[in-house]
Amino acid sequence: MSFKSLRPWFKEVFTLVDTACKELNIPLYLIGAQARHFHWAEEGIKPGRGTMDIDFAIMLPDMDVYDVLFDKLISDGFRKVTEPYRIIFDKTNTVVDLLPFGQVEEKGTVKFTDRKTELSVIGLKEVLEKPEIKSLDEETEVQVTPLAGLIILKLVSYYEKPERTRDLDDIHEILVNYFDVNQDRFYQNHDEMLEEFLGDNFILEAGAWLAGFDIGIVLNKNPQLKELILRILQREIDLATGGISSYLYGKGYFDDVDSIKRIISLIIKGINQQS
C-alpha cells in the first residue's frame, strides 16, 4: 500500500505547490489528515475518515512572500476563496490550506491584514523543527509532520475551539496505531517499561506512553507550550468527566471514563519522562 496509490490526485497538487515554494525558497510541510494518512500508508494501515483537503504549513520571512506565492499558484490553476489562507485546485477539486508560520507570527498568531483575519499557529514551529522525510515516489519527497506533532496540534486546535471534535477522533486514531508504527523503537529503547503495560490493553497503553514520550521531546523546546498541553491533559484527570473524556466515551471508543483517564495519564507520564 502506498500513499500515492491511495491519493492519486495528491502528486499533481503537491508538485505545483512544492515547485512554487522552492522557487521562493519557502520550506513546505505536510500537516493535517494527509500527513496522518502518509504514516498509515507506510505501515499498511487503512486510513480512517477520508478527505481530499490538503493542509500545508509554510515557513515565511514576511507576508509579502505569501502574496507572491499565491500569485504564482493562481497562475498555475488554483483560485482564491474567501479565506485568505485557502486556495482550490479546480482540476482535482482539491482544497488547499497554506498556513504561514515563522517570522510572520506574533505570539502564536498570524494576521492577514487585507481581510482582518487572525490565524493561530501555536505549536507549528516546534512540531516542524524535525519533520519526517517521506517518499511519495522515486522522484518526490515530502516533509511530513511526525505523529507526536500531529497530536500536539490537534490538542491545541481542540483547546482553542472545543467544537472541533473531529480533532479528538484523529487523536484517538493516532493513539490506536501509535504502538504498531513504533514498536521496534519501543522494544529497542524502552523495554524497561514492559511491566507497566502487561494488561489486555497493552498496545493502546504502551502507545499512549510512547506518544507522550515523543511529545515531551518536542515540548521541551517551549516551556509555555508544554505547560499548555499538560494543562489540557491534566484537566481531564482532575474533572469527573472532562470534554475529551465525555466525547471519546460517547463515541464508544472506551468502555468507561476511567479507561480514558488511564490513557491520558500515561501520555502525561511519557511527557514528564523528559523533564
Radius of gyration: 19 Å
Strand fraction = 15-25%
Mean of all residue-level pLDDT scores: 92
Strand order of the largest sheet: 1-2-5-4-3
What is the overall silhouette? globular
Question: Portion of residues in helices?
Answer: 40-55%
Number of helices: 11
Model regions low in confidence, pLDDT < 50 over at least 5 residues: none
Biggest beta sheet attributes: 5 strands, mixed
Measured distance between first and last alpha carbons: 38 Å
What is the succession of H and E elements? HHEHEHEEEEEHEEHHHHHH
Number of strand segments: 9
- SSE-based structural type: alpha+beta
Q: What does this protein look like?
A:
The protein is of the alpha+beta class and 275 residues long. The protein is built from 11 helices and 9 strands. Strands 1-2-5-4-3 form a 5-stranded mixed sheet. A two-stranded antiparallel ribbon has the order 6-7. Helix 6 packs antiparallel against helix 7, helix 6 (147-160) crosses helix 8 (202-219) and helix 7 (166-189) packs across helix 8 (202-219). The model has no long low-confidence stretch (mean pLDDT 92).
